[in-house]
Amino acid sequence: MDESRAIDLVAEWIRSRRLDYPTDGLEAERFAGGWSVYAPVEIDESDPMAFLDMPIGRSVFLVSDSGRIEESSSSVPPQVAIDRFMANEPAAMGSTGGGSHGSGSHGGGSQEAALMAEFEREFSRLAAEGPPAVSSFTAVDHTRDGAAGDAAVDAEASRLIEPIVQQVALLGPPGWHRLSAEFAFTVSSEIAQLRFWTGDRSGLVPVPLAIAELVRQQREVAARMPAGPWWRLLLAVTNRGETTVEYDYGDEPFPDDQLVEAGHYRNDLAAYPRPRLPVWLAGYVAGPAAQGRDPHRAGVAAIADITARRAATLDGRLPPLGEIWARWAVLSAVEAGIGSGWGPRIYPSYGWYENDRRSGATLFLLPGARAVLSGGKWNSALLEAAYNGGRPQPDLYTGAPAWVNDTVLNTRNRNGLLSFCFWWANGRWHRGTTDTSGDLDAPVPPVWTHAETVRAMAVQTGPGSEGRCEALLTASASHRATFGEVAALLAHKPGADVYAAANQLSLAGLLATQ
Within this chain, do residues 319 and 394 fall inside the same structural domain, yes or no? Predict the structure, then answer.
C-alpha cells in the first residue's frame, strides 16, 4: 500500500464516523507493515512557550498494508502503539505447534488466492460502512447432550462466545451473508479456520492472534463443564446475527487439516484428564506403541512365543483362503465395472475394503500360500473395553510368525484401531488368543458364503442376474473366469466398464489367459 492510499483510507474512515478530526492535509509515516497517518500540528518555533499549546493525546491512525485501520493516541509511545497494532494483524498461521495457529489455507489455487486478496482489500471498507455487521447474536443451537452442567459455568461459556462472534464478523468483506469459524485447540496447539461466503463465492480469511486468545479463554471456562474442554469449537453465523454453536468432543474423527500430532492431545489430557475418550482418538493418542508390529518387533515377539511355547489359536470359522479371495475379487470386479466409489478392490497381491461406517480390512497374499487378513471395526467393543474400561488390548498376535508385521497389516494398527488379525499358514487360519470373530461383520465384504456373495453381486447388477453372478463366481473360484462372462454379467448396466471389471479379476489371478 502506498502513502496516498493510506491517507485516503483514513480520511474515509474519519468521515464515516463523523469524528472531530481534520481530513485535509493528513500526513503519513511508514513503518514495517503499514502507515501511521495523522494531522500535523503547526507550532511557532519562535515562541519558547508554544509547546504548552500542543494538544495532548492527539489521535493517530495506524493502517496496515491489508487495509485494517486502528485509532491510537500520540500519548502512547509510537513503537508501543505499532507493536500492539501489528499483534492483532491477521496473519497466515500454518503451523500447529505450541501457541501457533492455522488459517486453514492450503494453497487452494489462483481463484482462492484472488478472493483472499479481495477480502483483505475490503477490510477497511467494512469498517468504514458504519456499525459492525453483527452487533449481537442469537444462539440457535448449542452443545451435544450431556455437555451442560453447572448453570453459572454454562452461562459464562456461552457469554464468552459473543465477543468471538463479533470479532470474527468484523473480518469479513462487505456483503457477506454467512461465515463459519472452526477452532481446533489443545493446550499446546491451536488451529483456526475462518471462511466467509459472499454471493456465490467463499474464501478463507486469516484469524488474528487476539481472537485466538478469546477462544482460548472460552475453552478454559468450558473445561469446567462435565464434558471437559471441547476439542473443536464450531461457529456458524449469518449476517442477521443468528449463530449456531457446537462443541466437538471427538465423537467423529476430526478433519485431517484439524488433526494435530498425538503429543498435543497427550499434553491436553495431562492438563485436563477425562474419564473417557472416543476410541478413535484414544487409539490415535496411543499410536504405534499399542499395536504396532514392525519387522524387528515381530521377530523378537515370534522368538519369545516359541521359547515360551505360546502357540497361535486355530480358527475354523473363516472360509478357506481361496474361497475368500475369489469372492472378494468378483465383488471388486462388479463394483469397478459399474463405476462405484464404494465396495472392495483388488490391487497387486492384496485386497482392500472400507465401508461407509469407518470399518475396513485388508487381505494380503504372500508367497508360499500365506496370507494376512486384518482390519478394524469402528465401534469395536474390544477396543472400547481396552481404552475406556481398563481392560488389556485384545491379544491379536500371540503365536504369529515374524512375517505378520506392519508391512502386511491393515494400517489401523499404527493408530491402535486394529480389532482383528488372522493369518493363513499350512492351509489353516490362525489368530491370537482373543476371539475377535465378532468384529468381522462390518469391516469385511460379504465373502463368508458363496450364496452371500452372489446376493451382493446381484444387488449391483440388477434383478435376474443371479445366474450370471453364480457363473462368474464359480469360474473365478477355479481361476478360469473369462472376459465374456464379465461382459455378460454387465451387459444390462448402461455405461459399465467391462475392462475395469475384468482387470480386477486379472490382478487377482483369476482371469483365464487368452
Answer: yes
pLDDT at residue 104 tops 50: no
Residues 150 and 191 in one domain: yes
Describe the crossing of helices 450-461 and 321-337 by its angle, rounded to 10 degrees.
0
Q: Are 246 and 141 in contact (CB under 8 A)?
A: yes
Give a three-class secondary structure readout of 178-222. EEEEEEEECCCCEEEEEEEEECCEEEEECCCHHHHHHHHHHHHHH
More confident residue, 457 or 15: 457
Query: What is the pTM for the complete model shown?
Result: 0.71
Same-domain check for residues 399 and 422: yes
For residue 19, the Cα-to-chain-centroid distance in whole angstroms is 46
Sequence-ordered list of residues with C-beta below 8 angstroms from that of 194, at least 6 positions apart, any chain: 103, 104, 168, 171, 179, 180, 181, 182, 204, 205, 206, 207
Q: Are residues 242 and 267 in the same domain?
A: yes
Domain span at residue 457?
288-507
CA distance 439 to 418: 10
Q: Which amino acid, residue 33? A: G
Residue 108 · residue 86 · CB < 8 Å: no
pLDDT at 52 over 50: no
